[in-house]
Amino acid sequence: xxxxxxxxxxxxxxxxxxxxxxxxxxxxxxxxxxxxxxxxxxxxxxxxxxxxxxxxxxxxxxxxxxxxxxxxxxxxxxxxxxxxxxxxxxxxxxxxxxxxxxxxxxxxxxxxxxxxxxxxxxxxxxxxxxxxxxxxxxxxxxxxxxxxxxxxxxxxxxxxxxxxxxxxxxxxxxxxxxxxxxxxxxxxxxxxxxxxxxxxxxxxxxxxxxxxxxxxxxxxxxxxxxxxxxxxxxxxxxxxxxxxxxxxxxxxxxxxxxxxxxxxxxxxxxxxxxxxxxxxxxxxxxxxxxxxxxxxxxxxxxxxxxxxxxxxxxxxxxxxxxxxxxxxxxxxxxxxxxxxxxxxxxxxxxxxxxxxxxxxxxxxxxxxxxxxxxxxxxxxxxxxxxx
Length: 387
Description:
- By secondary structure, the protein is an all-alpha fold.
- The chain has one domain (26-372).
- Helix content is 69%, strand content 2%.
- The longest helix is centred in the last third of the chain and has 32 residues, at 275-306.
- The relative contact order is 0.15.
């Protein structure tokens, strides 16, 4: 009877999940990730064959593993990119707790695999690097705490996040892993700055980081050797940096040709930390610039889309994820061209490494989820215009 008098209100028609996801996702960034992974497989065909030969394995053993782990990473990226900011927050918090516990246990049950740093857990026939998963989780937790601190009567999120930062950096320094420590500190600084911290405070924190670096130089032989090698005016041609420098010079603009590079036979880490040297030698500056451009597309487009984001958590977490992703790539390539000291850091989606590929997929998946276009609150728009 009521419907006959007043009429019936039409039920809201919800758009199916996949069409809504496809309409709101940043397709340029997602495509750039797939292209980077394709380039990684292409370079892996060249860089990992000598390693497989030295270890008595099938020629494309490492390429096949890279394809498998990369597929898992891309699947994780696509699945996470469909989540809402609230679900991203929950996933990040749970991931941070699990990764932090594993990092804390590394001094007791971890292995160094001959690298001079205890960073891996052996799980049957696989190795897991917990710090790769700790970074995106830490970004999410820090963004959540600092966003909550902006609420009226909110918790002291900035202070709590600083305490978490100190704990995370302390456990990473025990490995020692100063490269990941620097990334975590940088991500925290970005989120803190975007959340409203003054530049003077950020400068003071940077000074503390510099002082910590001086202390680490005196306390860690592992750290001191890398700094001394970086500062030395002469590069030993028999070191990894020497081989990488020579390969980049030999490559020139167009490269020496597919499969014609020699650095892969000399560099133990040609398929991981120094994969960009293989790209520069065989394909030249053209491929290196393409890789740089793809990383730039992901970072810049994400930051541009985040400018319109009104949710403080999504804005802070997205900025932290975008910057930590881009800076990791910058550090990897900077080490290869001797602009930065050796860090033992992979190039996301391009370097070989199961933990790196899956963690990169989760990181970019969260970033894509947070940068999806969402409808704005019309009432908030109205109040904004009145102001």
